[in-house]
Amino acid sequence: MSSICFRNSLGTLVLFCFGAMLVGCASGTNQPPVATVNSTGSSSSAPLSPQLLTASSWSNAGAADQALTAPLSELTNQTCLTCLGMPQPPACTLHAGNAPMSFTILPSATWFDVSPLSGTIAANATANISISAIYAGLQPSTNNKGTVVVTAPGYADNTQLNVTLSCGITGVPPDPNDNSTESCHLSVVCPPCTINTGGNTTYSISSVSRTGGSSLYLLATSPNLPPGTKVLISGIEDNSFDGTFFIASVPEANQLVIMQSLLPDATSGPGTVYVPEVISCPF
After folding, report:
1. What is the pLDDT of residues 136-166, one digit of tens each?
2. With CB atoms counted within 10 Å of each terminal CB, which end of the chain scores lower, N or C?
3. 208's torsion region: left (phi>0), alpha (psi -120 to 50) or beta?
4. Which of these, 142, 173, 61, 56, lies nearest to 103 by C-alpha position?
5. What is the pLDDT of residues 221-231, one digit of tens each?
């Protein structure tokens, strides 16, 4: 029989025994004793060594602010993220299993650095993996997503730490009234946390019409934003369509409906809709 031991993404320990003739599992660091035969033919019991987990788990590092928006000029080649107002460098906590984890880390992109890049975590201990530098000028597009690959003997490769950097967005914080502002938004997400669909993205509005207090916005692309998503709409010629709203419905993937029951019928366009990022963690 073969088997593995691992922690799932919620940190729950799941055990499967392995080794010939094993008949049970233990939740501690040692497997139950197994019968062996000595040179005289009598049987004795000897404990097995702890088995390595095949996966680890991540969690947010303390109460650190995991997101930052700053002008592109301030974030380019930035090695002092705390200088831009972050209470501490964005980080995730890596949890080792019931055996030491000697790890190496490889970021999947050239526009960010991670620290430490290697080390050893004691059994059942943790280590913070921090974003140590951002190179916004190296990103090949306006919406970059990266992962951190952790490799350690006895552990499965782990790519759960997600890093997002979006630059070139205009007319959003920190200067919503200056359309020339090129802003960058950095976020680090550790499972089991999630980012909302379309978060931290600007979409173009082709046209908008309001009938009977229901405003229908036609987008140039199809983000398929779910109802209830918070959106910031700006730049429309008839500014009664501008503002901060929650999507009431989505008739088509490239449409969204917002209720404006007290306003008269009208048509206008174009403009932009910005979806703020929302990071949700179940703890």
Report:
1. 888 877 778 888 888 888 887 788 788 888 8
2. C
3. beta
4. 56
5. 999 899 999 99
Residue indicated by tokens 């919406």? 143
Structural domain of residue 21, as residue ranges? Answer: 1-51
Q: Which segments of the chain have a pLDDT < 50? A: 1-53
Distance between CA atoms of 66 and 108, rounded to whole angstroms?
Answer: 19
CA distances 64 to 61, 93, 144, 161, 236, Å, are: 6, 11, 22, 15, 37
Task: Note whether 61 and 167 are same-domain residues.
Answer: yes
Whether residues 81 and 165 fall in one domain: yes
Structure-block tokens of residue 81: 């993220």
Cis peptide before 192 (omega within 30 of 0): yes
